[in-house]
Amino acid sequence: MKQETLRVFVYGTLRKGQYNHYLLDKARFIKDTRVDGFQMFSRGFFPFLYEGEGSIVAELYEINQRIFFSLDLLEGYPHHYQRKIVSDVNGDEAWIYYFENRMNERYMSNGSYIESGDWLSFNDMFEE
Would you name the residues annotated as active-site residues? Predict the structure, then answer.
């Protein structure tokens, strides 16, 4: 029986070379891309997104249900992050994890806005 595949955009600790990327070891990398309609913030160890004017850098992966379940656990879905299907700048659709609204002021006040939408470039500034 063939297992259903899903697609997911990842933008932080799940990207290549990052400490949670091991969860995608059995996933199929599709491409690097950008996703419009989100603003990115960093808490130092991880980024988070809110819907808004902006664009983020992401990697697109094809995953199975087991990986999807692991990602839900990592992201604390549905109590911490939410997820929904969005399109990238080329029209490819996939799931993305984000904060649904700005009600969590603690995250906003302790987060740094990443105007470029690229958490890896932002994080590199602190590692030099």
Answer: 75
Task: Please give the model's pTM, rounded to 2 decimal places.
Answer: 0.90
* Helix H or strand E encompassing 35: strand 28-42
Contacts of 14 (CB under 8 A, 6+ apart): 20, 21, 23, 24, 59, 71, 74
Distance CA 3, CA 117 (A): 33
Domain count along the chain: 1
Within 13 Å of residue 15, how many CA atoms lie on the same side as its CB?
19
The answer as to whether 128 is a domain residue is no
Both tokens assigned to 69: 């379940």
Per-residue pLDDT tens over the stretch 12-22: 999 999 999 99
